[in-house]
Amino acid sequence: MKNIRNYSNKILFIELNDGTYIKNLQIIIKSNIINNDILKLNTGCSINIIGKLINSIGNNQKIEILSNKINILGFLYNNKNILFHLLNI
Predict the structure, then answer these.
(1) Distance CA 80, CA 46 (A)
(2) What CATH fold (topology level) applies to the domain 3-87?
(3) What is the domain partition of the chain in residue ranges?
């Protein structure tokens, strides 16, 4: 997970990137599946998305995923050290 934007807990947008392509995939999360764990997500967290691939109405991407369910696979609690860990691989 690369970024998350929260709009008054009514809708979230996640930018997802697994490193295989330069562009991100936008995930739309509607309020009916938002919970406290999803609100704790931050850059570097590992998630599994179940949803529908749809044409985007936005200008920045052609497609996006409208999520039906999100499984959190892992949290990254200290994302300040991401660059440090990447440089030491």
Answers:
(1) 16
(2) OB fold (Dihydrolipoamide Acetyltransferase, E2P) (2.40.50)
(3) 3-87
Q: How far apart are CA 55 and CA 35, in angstroms?
A: 26
Cross-sheet strand order for the sheet of 11-16: 3-7, 11-16, 25-30, 63-74, 46-55
Per-residue pLDDT tens for 32-59? Answer: 998 888 888 888 788 899 999 999 987 7
Q: Is 28 exposed, middle or buried (0-12, 13-18, 19+ CB in 10 A)?
A: middle
- Looking at residues 4-31, what average pLDDT do you find? 85
Q: How many Å apart are CA 70 and CA 53, to the nearest integer?
A: 14
- Cα angle 18-20-21, degrees, rounded to a multiple of 5: 100
